[in-house]
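Listing S7. Sequence submitted for prediction.
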Amino acid sequence: MHSMRSSVHTTLGSSPGSLVFNRDMYLNIPLVADWHAITTKHEHVINSNLMRKNKKRRRFDYQINKKVLKKVHDPTKLGTRTQGPYKIEQVHTNGTLTIQFRPGITERINIRRVIPFHEQVVGPL
């Protein structure tokens, strides 16, 4: 417990024990913490991490009659990673799609489990 309380936290800029007890953990000196500056810095770190993660995300609007590939759960090393392409029957507002496997057979699936399918156009050689 002492090592956890006395180690300096990167976001907070000081150790949790010194912030709680208002004293340095090794030296017998008082510590005055600026809680407003600490919370502001913490919020800034959280927002910058969120912005960095959001830059890596793909943006795609799924539309009816477009095609998607369904991801295979836990694929083998050299096995196929996707199945399909399947046609989108309906786009729901809660982040799910209804895809058609065959005429009359559909499945409602989350958009995290599909990849947009882009048909390749083969031109003259």
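Caption to Listing S7: primary sequence and predicted structure tokens for the chain studied. The longest strand covers residues 82-91. Residues 88 and 99 are 4 Å apart (CA to CA).
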